[in-house]
Amino acid sequence: MADQNRINTEEEQEWISSLEWIIENESKAHASQLLHLLNQKAEAYGINLNGMAQSGQYVNTISADEEVAYPGDIDLEQRIDRAIRWNAMMMVAKANHTHSGLGGHISTFSSEADLFQVALHHFLRGYEGDHPDIVYWQGHAAPGLYAYSYVAHDLNEKQITHFRQEIQYKDGLPSYPHPRLMPNYWRFPTVSMGLGPIQAIYKARFLKYLQNRELTTYKETKVWAYLGDGEMDEPESTGALAIASREKLDNLIFIVNCNLQRLDGPVRGNNHIISEMANIFSGAGWKVIKVVWNSEWDKIWAKDTSGALKKVMAETPDGELQKWSIASGSELREELFGQNESLQQLAAEYSDDQLERLGKGGHDLVKIYNAYKRAVEYKDGPVVILAHTTKGHGQGEAGEASNVTHNKKKFSLEEIKDYRDKLEIPLTDEELKDYPFYRFEEDSDEVKYIKQRRKNLLGPLPSRKEMDYDFKMPSSKIFKSFDSGSGDKEATTNGAFMQLLSSLLKDENMANHIVPIIPDESRTLGLDALFGKVGIYNPKGQQYDPVDGGSLLQYTEKNKGVIIEEGITEAGAMSTFIAAGTHHNTEKFYTIPFFMFYSMFGFQRIGDLIWAALDARTRGFMIGGIAGRTSLSGEGLQHQDGQGHLFALAFPHLEAYDPAFAYETAVIIKEGIKRMYQKKEDLIYYITVNNDSYSMPKKPSGVDQGIIDGLYCYKEANKNKTKNKEVNLLGSGAIMKEVLSAAQILEEDFEIPVSIWSVTSYKKLYDNARDNARLNNIEEKKNQCTTENAFSENDICIAATDYIKALPLSIASWMPESYIVLGTDGFGLSDTVDELRHHFEVDASHIVWTALHELYNTGNLSKKVLRRFKDQHNIKKGKNNPTEY
């Protein structure tokens, strides 16, 4: 039934004619302005136009009459492209022929090859200029970039032969972009999927931050991110789009490779992924450029005056479009153009061969070039290019537009022959049996062309460099100021850290390097004391009077502000941390990020990004504020962190510390700055601090190395007054206060000598013991690790931590037999600190009880004494196990 509310055709035509007159006699910009005004007016009347602007237009954004000529040698570039495609396929096929099961991906690059080549030949700038571009490559297309570098004679045949064979061969190539494994080539890890988009946004934003602070000369650097359409389902892919438009990041370009397929099948079989993405990005304020159809369509679109073809394309789901990707001309004539008389007339003058050449814009060099040119020239915010491609493009029977193409790793000889013929690779049938690579001679026109293009664009890509920079350490007085302790005043390690950070921001060697990053918990952690001093970064400054204006802690935004207050997004904060912690790979300048997060919202929330940060060789400090299961009263199950340090055990090249005293915090941060920025070690320092108030002691002499190594004796036992068996109490972080109280009870009430040990890092102890045990095993040595040097086999050791017991148990194999651990296994609960510590059995009374019980078990204490303490200190039988909640 016809829509009774639809306006009549004559009135509709009047509106269209009016719009056409404005475009022809005024300008497109003026037409856009009028449409915007109409949209505003419609919204004022409650008319919902959401999605109408983009979803119905499945056509190219840039019309044929707007295009400029392609500046390159298309014939030459196509010969280069065919060689690259061949080597990308052969790299995967050869590796899996030699070693079945190695894997690899061919079809993603097959769909993206043209997008890469136009960028590499004409747009992406290298390191040798004043404005090097930053590129986040789509991870699954890695074989294609290796193939490009091979054809360019930047990689050799041994390297690409050893694709995904990194252990067997020193020159083996990693599976995906991994700077940790290939530091001179890859700059950023983009697998797992979704990590590339969010990193790119915050990298572009960080470059603007440096520009506003006048700390960089790179004004024209662009950040490019190549993404897959299936990847856009990841929350990280689209979750931060708004910040890019809000801060007008005109240095950011996304290219979404819309090949319509993910691993298992269509991305949106019943809908249009391109239209959906256009709506999402335009709604977030991005400039959207759609590259949907190739040049062969231009004349057909021009003849589609009735809009019949546009209507059919807008209504045809991706599942059908995927099938048409490999349809013959006769099939297209029947299935697409045979739907009505208007479409039949459009196709009537075209032969089947001509119809078969109707293809996708993401494989048309002219269309791609013009999209890139428009994106680079756009100055009003971020740009996304939605490029329509075919997954497995050119692979034919070996996986083109097939739902299983993602898993295509092996090729039969017949498939290889077919691919060779399509690409016109000059290899014989006999040569194909050896899975050969193919490239042009170094003095060929093709290689000269690549080299000249990259010379014009100022250096080869992909490439990663660490810029030399003469870094000067901060004044030693900053760190020594914590040696004297706090005297009679109580303090917290959280407060000590904030005091230290404030001092670093004033230091002449450090002020311009420090980048404080926090996801909306500044006041909780005490960073608000710096709001007025250094300001919160906002490119627009502060265009309002804050409600707390005039107060010492007022919310102060500046376009040259130092603090990056991200809002409630740990993922965004971590992405900024990566941007800052890798900036020395962009220019000769270190930025030192301090990412401060609240409670458990670190490893638990953004573990994947932390792993990516270590892969990227990021340097910087992660500060876990109000850390530990029992240090955060009232907040309960989803806040209290009893597992952060356990997670940290799994992360290589990460140093994890849980200091108990202010001087320990200072020693650790000084060492971190020295190792990361003077010695240039690619590490991340994870340091937990807490809000437990107690008197900060003076630093004992000679303990610095112990603090760094993870263990030192804070107080030796006094054995002169008694012959009782000595007990060693091990404490760290917030629970050290309980350990000190327990030691006092044991000494004063029971005359038991106690040595108190500060465990600043269980991870350091574990790493040291693990590596030492391996060395002793393989090289038949008898070296002792840190804990074995500290304790003898007959010692009694009680370790108490605000983290789960698995953390101190990680070193159990290298501790005495009498080694008992107390921890906070189970969910957090809402209550006071004292109640929480008693519930989790890590308070002073449970530490004393555990020590007495172990003395009893080893024959060093009477049962009478044990029972008396149990009755006096509420150590009850039948108490609920904390893990049962």
From TrEMBL:
Component of the pyruvate dehydrogenase (PDH) complex, that catalyzes the overall conversion of pyruvate to acetyl-CoA and CO(2). It catalyses: N(6)-[(R)-lipoyl]-L-lysyl-[protein] + pyruvate + H(+) = N(6)-[(R)-S(8)-acetyldihydrolipoyl]-L-lysyl-[protein] + CO2. It comes from Fulvivirga sediminis. One of its GO terms (molecular function) is metal ion binding. Residues 1-24 form the PH domain. The keyword Transmembrane does not apply. This is Pyruvate dehydrogenase E1 component. Coiled coil: none annotated.
